[in-house]
Sequence to fold (294 residues):
Amino acid sequence: MRGTDLEQLETTAYRESYSDGVVDLFAGLSLIWIGACWLWFEAIAPFAAILPAVLIPTLVPIRRRLTESRAGYVRWTEPRRTWERRQLTGLAALGVGTLVVVGGLIAYRRLGDGAIDVSGFAAAIPAVLVAIPIVVVAVVTGLRRVWAYAFVIVATALATVAANQNPGWPLLVGGLAMLVTGVVLFAEFRRSTPAGDGA
Amino acid sequence: MSELDRLIHEPARLMLMASLYIVDEADFVNVAGRTGFSAGNVSSHMAKLEAAGYVSVRKEFVDKRPRTTYSLTDAGRRAFEEYRATVAGLLKATE
Fold:
C-alpha cells in the first residue's frame, strides 16, 4: 500500500461524502432563484445572488441535520480542512467578483457612453460568470456531474445569445439540471443508507 | 525484516485502520458505511484495536442520540505506518 493509495482512498471518501445531493439541491434552487429574477424581476436581478450567498452559512447545519444520522459523522484531517476553507474563501471571492462584474456591466449598459458594444454577448455573461466558480468546484473536487453543470450553463448561455433571449434562461436551465440531479441523489442516498443510531 | 503486526494484518481490521488513518475521527455509522461492514463486525474489531491501544473510543450523546466516535491513537498511527513499511518491504523483496 503506497502513500498515493491512501491519498486516493481519502480523496474518494471525501468525494463520496458529497454524493447525498444536498449541495446540488441548494445550488440548483439558488440558480433557479437567480434565473427567475433575471426573467421576471430584472430590477433586482444583479443582486439576486446575495440571497444564496447569505444562505450559505445555513447549508452546513441543514446538511448535517439531513444526512448525519445516515452517513455518520466524520472530521477530516487538518490539511483537508485547510484545503476546504481555502476553496470556500476562493469561491466567496469569485462570487463577489461575479457580482461586481455583472453589476458593472449592467451599469455600463444603462449609463455608459456605449463606446464598447456589449449588447451582443451581454446575455451570456451572467451565466458564464456563474459557470466559472462551478468549473473551479469541478476542478478541485473532480466530480463529473459538476463539469456537466458548468457545460449545461455555458451551452445554454451560448444558445441564449444565438436566440437573443434573456440571460435568465441559462441560469434557470442549469439550476433545474442541478435540482433534478440533487433530488435523484438525495432519494438514492436515503434509500441506500438506513438511519443508524450512532452507537 | 520486521514481522507483520498480526492484529492489523487481519483484512477487516486492516480496512478499519486504513479508514481511520485518512481522517481525524469518525463515528460508528460513518466507519460502517465507508467499509461496508456490519455493526457487529465493526464493534468486535474496534474492541480488539482499542484493547491494543491502536484506537481510542469516545461515547457521547449528540442531539439526544448516542454517538460512538473512533480515532487512531498515536501508537495506532505508528503501528499502521510500520505495517505499511513492512508490507512494502516484503513486496519489494519478492520482485
